[in-house]
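Possible regression after last week's pipeline update?

I re-ran a chain I had predicted before the update to compare outputs. Posting the input and the new output here so someone can diff against the archived version. Not blocking, just want to make sure nothing changed silently.
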Amino acid sequence: MAKGKKQAKEVKPSYMTTREVAAFLGLSAGTLCTWRYQGKGPSYYKVGNAVRYKIADVEAWKNENVKRVKLTN
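New output (post-update):
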């Protein structure tokens, strides 16, 4: 790298759309919309009409709400 030139840092997105969260959780976008209306599901943010979910909040919600199933024979 030449002296005086800065290397570009890769910026990772920290927010997800409703569709991205739905795919991540294996749900429909409609289910997330219903959950928002009912006060359920992961925390979300609104900027104007845009709904965004912080990735860390979605992962935390998933970890807190996952149900482990024990299989028996």
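Follow-up from reviewer: compared with the archived run. Helices lie at 18-25, 29-38, 55-65. Marking as no regression found.
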